[in-house]
Amino acid sequence: MSNTQFDISAIKELHDIVQVIKNSGVELKKRGSRYVGNCPFHRDEVPSFVVYENRFYCFGCHERGDVLDFLMKLHGCDFKTALAHLGIDNLQNVPVVTGQEYEKRKIKRELVRKFRQWEVDYSTELGLMIRVGHKALKTLSFDDDLRKWLSDQIPVWEYRLEILATRNDRLKFELWRSVNGSAEV
Ligand SMILES: [Zn+2]
Predict the structure, then answer these.
(1) pTM of whole model > 0.85?
(2) Longest C-alpha distance within the chain, in Å?
(3) Are 139 and 63 members of one domain?
(4) Residue 43 domain flag
(5) What is the band of 88 on the pLDDT scale with cuts at 50, 70, 90?
(6) Which strand (E) or helix (H) includes residue 56?
(7) How far apart are the CA of 48 and the centre of ligand 1, in A?
(8) Are residues 140 and 154 in the same domain?
(9) Region 110-126 average pLDDT
(10) CB–CB of 17/65 below 8 Å?
């Protein structure tokens, strides 16, 4: 079986990993955007098992993977049987994509993931630069050039942070391109 024939990622997205794991008898509690519970793969005294963004990870035994990995590991079964656990007995019912289309979707998903991570990282970075910048202007003595640069720069950072705080993905994407250059996109 090859990923280039069947859109396995579509299956993973259609089946909520949290629900599948809960249905397997693992108790999960919501902690912010994650779910935690006792790991089913080792004797877990503290909840070490974390589920987030369609994946699981255990901080105790380091088992990790997606919903199909979970089922294969839990039942000690192969890929096809794991699919059967999700109610997929017949791969003919699974969306078929060409290799090229599959690669395109994979690249897009990876890009979106990177973009979302950048949003979080860059917001934190900007917040810090703005705070430090304001404080420096108040408390430090600079030469005029540096003072001017910093005075000009802070509003730019503040504007960027405002963009990142909106839900406007188009503006955010433009910002991403201008900050990171077009090489990545
Ligand atoms: Zn574990």
Answers:
(1) no
(2) 72
(3) no
(4) yes
(5) confident
(6) strand 55-58
(7) 6
(8) yes
(9) 91
(10) no
